[in-house]
Design goal:
Elements (H helix, E strand, L loop, with lengths): L12 E2 H8 L3 H10 L6 E3 L2 E4 L1 H17 L1
Antiparallel strand pairs: 1-3, 2-3
């Protein structure tokens, strides 16, 4: 289940901007939006938007999984 706060003042960014910030390919982020149902993305007509803090929180889950192993 995606938990997105529509009342947050943090602006949404284009998926391509977030990919540059994370230094990953746009195609990788696009894959994440399709592969993971809980990836925090807003689908607008012709555009995918994300909030950096929500993506960071989502990515932390993978770091925590590695620490458990």
């Amino acid at each position: 289940m995606i938990n997105i706060d529509l009342n947050s003042e943090e602006p949404y960014q284009k998926l391509s901007q977030m990919a540059k910030l994370l230094e990953v390919k746009y195609e990788t982020m696009l894959f994440w939006t399709k592969r993971y149902d809980d990836f925090p993305v807003i689908r607008l007509p012709g555009s995918l938007r994300v909030r950096p803090s929500e993506v960071a929180k989502w990515l932390e889950r993978f770091q925590n999984e590695e620490e458990v192993k």
